[in-house]
Protein: Ribose ABC transport system, ATP-binding protein RbsA
Amino acid sequence: MDALGLRTTPALQVESVSRRFGPTLALDGVDLAFVPGRVSAVVGANGSGKSTLLRILAGLLPPTSGQVLAFGSHPVRSVHHALDAGVVLVPQEPTLAGHLTVWQNVSLVSPARRSGIFLNDRRARRFAAEHVAGLLPEGVLDRPTGSLSKSSRQLVQLAAAMARDPQVLLLDEPTAVLDEDGVVALHALVRSFRERGGTVLIVSHRLKDVLELADDVVVLRNGRVQLDCAVTPQSEREIVALLSADEGVEREHRTGTDAPVVLRATGIRGWRGLDVPELTVRAGEIVGIAGQSGSGRSRLAAALAGSHAVEGTVEVAGTEIRTGSIRSARAAGVAYVPEDRHAAAIMGNQSVEANLLLGQDDPALRTGPFRSRRGERRVGRELVTSYDIRPPLPDKQAGLLSGGNQQKVVVARALAGRPQVVVADEPTQGVDASARAAIHEALAAAAAEGTAVVAVCSEFEEIFALADRIVVLYDGRVVLDRPCAATTPDEVLAASLGSSASPDAPTDQLEEVLA
Ligand SMILES: Nc1ncnc2c1ncn2[C@@H]1O[C@H](COP(=O)(O)OP(=O)(O)OP(=O)(O)O)[C@@H](O)[C@H]1O
Structure:
């Protein structure tokens, strides 16, 4: 019912929808209604069926049984039906054409591209600019989309969705890769879309963010609706209790250790303004790298892991690695969890086991000089169990796992080889609370065994929970480097925004601010 007590036709009505993938029942008899002018958060553990629900609503996937109706009368049986009814999905992984400019991607499907039968680039660019406004600076319009950060690409994807003039927006984990500014822009967009009567479904593991924004919440568990209610202070408490994990053992920050330096980077320069004269990480230390998107945090991680050539040297336990050579870094004992799991870390058409064992040289995997199939099965199964990869099927194609479970595979593989150094870029991207706790524990356990850990995290809170030391980048430079115990989230935020409040800010920057 609306405010006048009139019955409102749901924008989307989900009727007894089930979806099976072989032995996996991803959705099991789901009944839901989403009404116009409301934002619904769809939450639940990794693999609980959230993305499957969104893909069915977007017409990308047919249900095994049941049906979806848009605005009371339009059955959604294909992408075409969904788009006709104004239902637009922004998927977890961007689907933009990297070689096209931002304005081309945003205006790709719009009639504004045409004057009669001809393409009209000027009009299309103007049209794109309107949709990019508020999300990204106008200066990005002519940049190739592939050259932008993942956060910016996600915002381009959002602009492209808005360019379709939707009635219903389906947002799958939009904040997983967004930086602070991106999250603010997304929230503003969602709020104004709702005011205009739009319907929004938003899947997220960032409970705090999503509950702040949502009117209603749906909790999924093993493909079933566990809770479907309005967000109130009471229901919020219930939801948080349902979805939180045991925090695990609180890790004590290590300070002032005299353990040997394992990772030493000196004179790192180049690659769009990266300029880090020295960075060291000791055995057993966890260093969190913070910074806004574009600050150089991921570039620094990639440089340390040998994935991109830069000036300067990177040494692991005294051995210099060749920068730009992942092979050389790996040989020296560096394991890398890249930010872009899809493009760089998961072989989607190979089994979970093959992905877990890729590049591993554990003696447990051999019988004499030969690879042991039995050993591989055992190690694969052990990793699946200890990282709680769901479903627990080592033979399942890795690309068919839910996003969070793919992330667990990537982290499990990185840590399984007992590396000297782990460089993890957003190690808990897209994972639920219990997987996040498990990944933190695994990184802490690796550190306890002497591994030097470097973790890039866009959430400052995560760094304080995980790391011993925090290094903040701004504009490619280190502007703060301190033990976590000796700094506060406010100082980190100020430093990440380039504020002079940070006493570690390079003097030239301070002078600029003071002038
Ligand atoms: N194409 C597919 N083939 C086989 N199994 C699939 C396929 N798509 C999804 N699944 C399985 O369906 C279940 C639900 O997956 P889904 O992606 O909907 O979960 P999710 O709640 O979105 O998880 P996450 O939070 O990790 O993104 C998982 O067990 C997943 O492995």
